Amino acid sequence: MLLKDLFRKQRKYATIPSPEAKKEIPEGIMQKCPRCGTIMITKELEKNLKVCKSCGYHYSMTAPERIRSIVDEGRFFEYDEDMVSEDPLGFPEYKKKIKADMDKSGLKEAVITGEGTIGGYPTVIGVMDSRFRMGSMGSVVGEKIARAAGRAVDKQYPFILFSASGGARMQEGVLSLMQMAKTSAALEKMHRNGLLFVSVLTNPTTGGVSASFSSLGDINLAEPGALIGFAGRRVIEQTVRQKLPDDFQTAEFLLKHGQLDRVVPRHELRDTLIKILEFHAYGRETQ
Ligand SMILES: [Zn+2]
Predict the structure, then answer these.
(1) What is the 231 CA–ligand 1 centroid distance (Å)?
(2) What is the pLDDT, as a whole number, of residue 1?
(3) Does residue 5 lie in a domain region?
(4) Are residues 117 and 207 in the same domain?
(5) Are the C-beta atoms of 132 and 107 separated by less than 8 Å?
(6) Is the pLDDT confidence value at 21 over 70?
(7) Residue 264 CA to chain centroid, in angstroms?
(8) Which of 82, 107, 156, 227 has the smallest set of CB atoms within 10 Å of its CB?
(9) Is residue 62 a known part of a binding site?
């Protein structure tokens, strides 16, 4: 061996795990961060509100996890829990897919609505769950959100909605698009009653959901790194024939361009919401 070989800088290669190596991580016990590759024990990750300890990546939360992380003592009273989707267009396989998602997620639809207290403030809460038909908005999702807004009006409560959605539900065609108008009208009624609506956009919030209720908050918050947009990047690039910036359609990009009020790390979210509720309650008392 030549002396210079001894001093040659060793190239650092990133190890790309083989498909076999990936399988060695027992499913369910450990989770590998999709951004930095750090492996965390699932229980530890859950204790950390599903945020990667190394890079701060925010994993998706299920609707029940989200509710537990936000309401006081995890106490929550659910609305319309038995409302389930029909198959109005007779779309092939739709009923089967709904059933499969129910079994997989333990949910009846892609949104849970109800009420609880947050920092002592009674609040109507809606949480979407991307495990159910990608959190897509069909008639039931729209109806549950519109009813939740209606309950907020009846009870004079604020409404906080966490969205996570791929957009409108294609299996319900135009009926799913109509939910954009229905939910927007229900929120307008809240507005006319001087009630607070806070939208929290989580990863991902796209399509008809981003183009309706999730952008209509009196205050619009988002989680770090969340993908938020209407059409997909490729579709836009092909349409405008321009390369889009790398951070396009991220929460941070939207904040920079005035479409969000704040990007709030998950660990600060509950306290931030309590502060917002507090300001608002004070405003109402002094009216
Ligand atoms: Zn990470």
Answers:
(1) 27
(2) 53
(3) no
(4) yes
(5) yes
(6) no
(7) 13
(8) 82
(9) no
Q: Ligand 1 centre from 215 Cα, in Å?
A: 28
Asked if pLDDT for residue 156 goes beyond 90, the answer is yes
- Cα(45) to ligand 1 centroid in Å equals 11
Quick check: 152 and 124 in contact, CB under 8 A? yes
Among 59, 90, 108, the domain boundary falls at 59
pLDDT at 200: 98
Q: 70 and 55 in one domain?
A: no
Q: Answer with the one of 35, 59, 83 that is the final residue of a domain.
A: 59
Output the CA 225–ligand 1 centroid distance in Å.
Answer: 12
Query: What's the CA gap between 86 and 82, in Å, rounded?
Result: 12
Q: What are 79's two structure tokens?
A: 């609305």
Q: Is 219 annotated in some ligand binding site?
A: no
In this prediction, residue 9 has a pLDDT band, given cuts at 50, 70 and 90, of low
Per-residue pLDDT band at 81 (split at 50, 70, 90): very high
**Residue 36 marked in a binding site:** yes
45: left (phi over 0), alpha (psi -120 to 50) or beta: alpha
d(CA 223, CA 202): 5
Looking at per-residue pLDDT, the higher value among 281 and 76 belongs to 76
Q: How far is the CA of 59 from the centre of ligand 1 (A)?
A: 9
pLDDT in tens, 197-215: 999 999 999 999 999 999 9
pTM: 0.88
Å from CA of 248 to ligand 1 middle? 21
Ligand 1 ion: Cβ-proximal residues, 5 Å cutoff: 33, 35-36, 38, 52, 54-55, 57
- Rounded to whole angstroms, the Cα distance separating 199 from 164 reads 11
Q: Give distance in angstroms: CA of 194 to centre of ligand 1.
A: 41
